[in-house]
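STRUCTURE:
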């Protein structure tokens, strides 16, 4: 027995999402012929499934495809807080976008929460939907002012909230802002029910069906890697990173961040509520109830740009220290990580991919708030397809112009890409593939830069480290055993297959 197996307080050796592990999902076929539908949706996460469900309910013929398995991407990695409290944001929105748009953002997310509650009731979905208060807090004196400003923004926008000087959990806090009557659930139990309702309404789902291109025109087509075509009236990209760009330059205006979650059985009882610190590194807490009735507390945080920073396993260790120092650890049955995409102004892109392509729609850039933003996206996408008015159309329009702070963010982020493009090429590498022990990966020197991972059986997997998107050098992710690109966040498996775009082609394999 190894030391991991003997010690319950140790982290699991491999990442595994509790959400994914605790539901049974049906399998769907791969698309194996050309088909014609009204709407083709690419990506079966919360936005794709909810949009498919809403459209099928209106009598629209929808095909939903996923490059891998349904509900296996970001939606399986969320902490699944259903709230309009999205970190410190309303003060920033009032100053950057104006009071009206700040209020619209709140309303859109409040509507999404209301929609989820209604759908759960309508379909009698057992998904542990519970009402919870959402707390933003700080443990440092220097951030109290930020929270005071955020609370002032709540008052200005008419958001119900309270300002507190402590938390109802054993985490030291100097100040907190609470948004009452928010919610949490088991996202995959909820979405499995919507998926079944979609199928019952005549919808079709195809897994392992990779969309590589969209053909434009009044009858656009999604082309799959196997060469099959889905002809339709509207294409909707809910694939996290849009599967096609069409000169929308999404790679230059979406920034990829990773964060980490530990699922912990704690020594102290977790009293409820959802918490997020505004400090760096951030900390997020909520609980969920497991099938056997035990509470699992989800400790999250440690955001960083994908492919950058310290070895990723250290982020899990930092969360482990935090859990031990606050609630105490009995056991850590789960750990997993998530990738989130952020826009320069922090508002998602939901709508036509470019101003000239009205029937190719995208939904992406939810930061870490996919449960409400993804649901708001589905409600807006439905209305765009059905040509109905929607109050949030302009707020989320992907072709909105950048202003003020978001222009500065664009410049800083693209300078960061340029820096990493050069740095990776001139880095000195000392490691050789022969020195890797089992279950170890690293960038190695084989006369040139290469990526190597020796698996648990001792087999060496080597890949070229030049990202197939725009040529930056990928880095080893020790926490998740992947190759991650520091420029636009593409991720690849140990054998080079694409896990996350914008890259479309795998890393080249190197045969020994
Ligand atoms: Fe753009 Fe790698 S993701 S260069």
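SEQUENCE:
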């Amino acid at each position: 027995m190894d030391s991991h197996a003997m010690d319950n307080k140790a982290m699991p050796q491999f990442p595994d999402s509790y959400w994914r592990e605790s539901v049974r999902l049906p399998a769907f076929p791969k698309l194996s012929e050309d088909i014609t539908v009204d709407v083709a949706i690419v990506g079966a996460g919360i936005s794709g499934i909810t949009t498919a469900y809403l459209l099928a309910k209106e009598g629209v013929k929808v095909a939903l495809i996923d490059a891998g398995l349904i509900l296996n991407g970001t939606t399986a990695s969320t902490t699944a807080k259903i709230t309009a409290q999205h970190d410190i944001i309303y003060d920033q929105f009032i100053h950057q976008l104006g009071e009206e748009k700040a209020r619209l953002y709140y309303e859109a997310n409040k509507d999404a929460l209301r929609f989820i509650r209604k759908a759960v009731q309508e379909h009698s979905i057992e998904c542990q939907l519970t009402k919870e208060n959402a707390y933003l807090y700080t443990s440092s004196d220097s951030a109290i002012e930020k929270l005071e400003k955020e609370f002032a923004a709540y008052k200005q926008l008419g958001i119900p909230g309270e300002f507190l000087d402590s938390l109802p959990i054993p985490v030291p806090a100097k100040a907190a802002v609470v948004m009452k009557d928010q919610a949490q659930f088991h996202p995959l139990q909820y979405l499995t029910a919507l998926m079944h309702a979609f199928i019952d309404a005549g919808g079709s789902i195809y897994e392992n069906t990779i969309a590589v291109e969209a053909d434009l025109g009044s009858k656009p087509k999604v082309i799959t890697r196997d060469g099959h075509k889905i002809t339709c009236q509207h294409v909707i990209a809910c694939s996290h990173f849009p599967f096609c760009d069409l000169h929308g330059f999404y790679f230059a205006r979406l920034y990829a961040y990773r964060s980490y979650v530990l699922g912990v059985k704690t020594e102290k009882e977790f009293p409820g509520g959802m918490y997020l610190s505004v400090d760096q590194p951030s900390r997020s807490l909520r609980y969920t109830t497991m099938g056997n009735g035990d509470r699992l507390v989800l400790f999250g945080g440690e955001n960083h740009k994908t492919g950058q920073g310290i070895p990723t396993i250290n982020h899990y260790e930092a969360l482990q220290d935090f859990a031990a120092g606050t609630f105490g650890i009995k056991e850590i049955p789960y750990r997993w990580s998530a990738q989130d995409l952020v826009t320069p102004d922090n508002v998602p892109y939901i709508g036509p991919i470019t101003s000239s392509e009205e029937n190719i729609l995208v939904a992406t850039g939810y930061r870490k708030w996919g449960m409400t933003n993804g649901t708001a996206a589905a409600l807006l996408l439905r209305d765009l397809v059905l040509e109905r008015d929607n109050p949030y159309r302009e707020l989320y329009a992907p072709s909105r112009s950048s202003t003020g702070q978001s222009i500065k963010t664009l410049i800083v982020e693209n300078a960061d890409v340029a820096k990493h493009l050069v740095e990776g090429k001139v880095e000195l590498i000392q490691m050789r593939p022969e020195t890797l022990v089992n279950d170890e990966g690293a960038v190695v020197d084989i006369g040139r830069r290469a990526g190597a991972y020796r698996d648990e059986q001792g087999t060496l997997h080597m890949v070229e480290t030049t990202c197939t998107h725009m040529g930056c050098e990928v880095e080893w992710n020790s926490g998740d055993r992947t190759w991650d690109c520091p420029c636009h966040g593409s991720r690849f498996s140990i054998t080079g297959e694409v896990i996350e775009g914008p890259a479309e082609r795998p890393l080249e394999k190197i045969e020994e």
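REMARK: Residues 251, 467, 469-472, 485, 487-490, 502-503 surround FE2/S2 (inorganic) cluster (CB under 6 Å).
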